[in-house]
Specification:
The protein has a nine-stranded mixed sheet. It contains seven helices and nine strands, in the order αβββαβαβββααβαβα. By secondary structure, the protein is an alpha/beta fold.
């Protein structure tokens, strides 16, 4: 009986759990525990976490929450890979909220976010043409957005920027939630994107990845 109960505990495959400074979104700058789930069905051209595609270790939800608690901060970000590709991600998000954490979810937007615990801030990365995965965007996700959520777009070139402008206008995104724009590292100069935003008076929030400014491309930071 005990073994059967143990085997039934919800588990997820985890690449890493670590404490760092949040480098993106409106939570930028906060000490944050990152729970990086393993696996992703997308292959974006600019992906910087390909090491999370495979491997990892199985942990049950209680073990994950215990490890988060041991790191001693109030903000938690569940990320990947693509965290929603694991069916037990929803339960993990709820367990973290129930434990009193301020929880955010970083997702590609290729999977349905409508059933995510409403206490979670959903940061949806809409895929631009330059990502190579534009066709994976699940546009129905936009209808479930609220003021707490955020849309992120990684801009690789001027074509991506013009695409993003059209999407922002078509879906009235700034009226739904905060919209973030980031330059793709090594593909677009940050100052160029900032200039385009200013020239067009675009109602978006420019962001750089603060953690990379601080530590470069170091896994687990």
């Amino acid at each position: 009986m005990g073994a059967a109960v143990l085997n039934a505990a919800p588990r997820l495959r985890i690449t890493e759990i670590f404490r760092s400074i949040q480098g993106e979104s409106s939570s930028v700058g906060w000490p944050t525990v990152f729970v990086r789930l393993t696996g992703c069905p997308l292959r974006c051209s600019y992906c910087d976490t390909a090491y999370a595609f495979h491997g990892g270790q199985w942990m049950d939800v209680a073990q994950i929450v215990d490890q988060v608690r041991a790191l001693g901060v109030s903000h938690v970000c569940v990320t990947g890979g693509e965290p929603l590709a694991q069916k037990n991600c929803q339960g993990l998000l709820t367990a973290l909220c129930d434990s009193g954490y301020q929880v955010s979810l970083e997702t590609s937007g290729a999977l349905d976010v409508s059933s995510v615990d409403p206490r979670v801030m959903r940061v949806i990365d809409l895929k631009t043409p330059g990502s190579g995965e534009e066709g994976r965007n699940l546009w129905s996700n936009l209808s479930s957005l609220n003021a707490k959520d955020e849309i992120k777009m990684v801009i690789c070139d001027r074509g991506d920027y013009e695409w993003a402008k059209a999407v922002i206008s078509k879906h009235a995104l700034p009226q739904r939630c905060t919209v973030l724009m980031s330059p793709s590292q090594s593909q677009l100069e940050p100052s160029a994107l900032a200039d385009w935003i200013l020239e067009d008076q675009l109602p978006v929030r420019f962001q750089l990845q603060l953690h990379k400014v601080l530590w470069g491309n170091v896994a687990g930071r």
